[in-house]
Design goal:
Strand content: 15-25%
Helix content: 10-25%
Bound molecules: zinc ion
Order of helices and strands: HHHEEEEEEEEE
Mean pLDDT: 87
Radius of gyration: 18 Å
Shape: globular
CATH architecture: Beta Complex
Amino acid sequence: MKNPWVLAILFLCYYNSVFSQEKIVNTTQKIKQNDMSNKTPEEWKKILNDEEYRVLIEKGTEYPHTGEYNTHFENGVYNCNGCKTPLFTSDQKFKSDCGWPSFDEAVKGAIKYVDDYSLSRYRVEIICANCNGHLGHIFDDGPTETGKRYCVNSVSLDFNKKSK
Ligand SMILES: [Zn+2]
């Protein structure tokens, strides 16, 4: 005789696997530009300066309140500084006191989300979906209606002003 709990657990496993597959599909939509995810460290060093390499490739963090775009508010698009893929628009940026440029949303499909257990805590790292460059982390404490705070290093970004 089958234990109904076994059936319930099987159902939950099935439900979870369907749900997580959907999540993976949503977060791995790639923008097919010039895919640079296979670049070697030497190739990256040719196009990035030392600080950009430390953050984008070695997943470093710029010192808070020092970044070029922390208090930067102009109309335009924030591209990935590694591969120039558009990541955020200026209307997704909000004023934050956290010390890094903060956005409440991203360009659809431009970001990949990665579990990060470094520094003895769980966070979700955000990387460029095109070149895998490290951008920062995402938190659920955003003040706008999305509730999200994409906390991004300025050196991972390259602003492109909207021409009128
Ligand atoms: Zn990129």
